[in-house]
Design goal:
Blueprint (H helix, E strand, L loop, with lengths): L5 H12 L13 H7 L8 E4 L8 H11 L4 E6 L4 H9 L5 E3 L4 H13 L6 H12 L5 H10 L2 H10 L5 H7 L4 H15 L4 H10 L6
Parallel strand pairs: 1-2, 2-3
Helix pairs in contact: 8-11, 9-10, 10-11
Length: 212
């Protein structure tokens, strides 16, 4: 477990230790401390980490784990509930994203789902990610038709959306004006019948325009 808030970390550790099949073997204050402790020959099955931490935060820790130990499962446990934080953690390899004010039953469900299914989508992610597609998600045939209509620049824009860059930074990277980028975004919102950036990201990942 990686979290600089000792009381919160110890409280979560108690819940983990009281969950059948799980035991906390190490607690770290930040990602650097964790990386220095980690034994390549005896890796943990799962890493739980906060995002806002000193020295080496959750995003940097996630990147480090993915680069050095890509098969090591990890999940974010944070107070942050914004799309950008979620996208960045998912892109960096997180198998789940849980808010710290979640119920204990949800926490335990997350542990089991990540270990047994490889991924956990909680109610927050469902509401903000899957929920953005649910109301009018195109069927497979309809989605393929939309995919066939997309130009290369639209696909490039979708790939950039899967990074942690802001819309303004994406405009600069694509050598376009912010207004043009807003036009791409609004057009894709309309075509795909979604209402959030994460909805666009899911479409891109699902159709292999971008990969996490």
């Amino acid at each position: 477990m990686i979290d600089d808030h000792v009381l919160m970390r110890q409280s979560l550790a108690s819940v983990v230790n009281a969950t059948p099949g799980f035991k906390v073997i190490y607690e770290a204050n930040n990602g650097l401390e964790f990386s220095q402790w980690l034994n390549p020959n005896d890796l943990p099955d799962l890493v739980l980490m906060d995002i806002n931490m000193p020295v080496m935060n959750g995003h940097d820790t996630a990147q480090w784990i993915t680069a050095h130990y890509p098969k090591l499962k990890f999940m974010a446990i944070s107070m942050l509930n914004d799309e950008r934080s979620i996208i960045k953690m998912l892109r960096n390899g997180a198998r789940g994203y849980l808010l710290k004010d979640s119920e204990i039953l949800d926490f335990r469900q997350a542990l089991n789902d990540v270990m047994n299914k490889g991924i956990y989508i909680n109610t927050v992610l469902y509401r903000h990610i899957v929920g953005s597609l649910q109301a009018s998600q195109p069927n497979e045939q309809g989605e393929q038709a939309i995919l066939n209509e997309l130009g290369e620049r639209e696909k490039e824009f979708l790939r950039w959306l899967c990074t942690d860059k802001s819309y303004k930074e994406i405009a600069a990277a694509m050598y376009l004006s912010p207004r043009t980028i807003d036009g791409y975004r609004d057009m894709l919102f309309e075509k795909l019948k979604v209402a959030s950036r994460i909805g666009l990201v899911l479409f891109a990942i699902r159709n292999e325009i971008a990969k996490i």
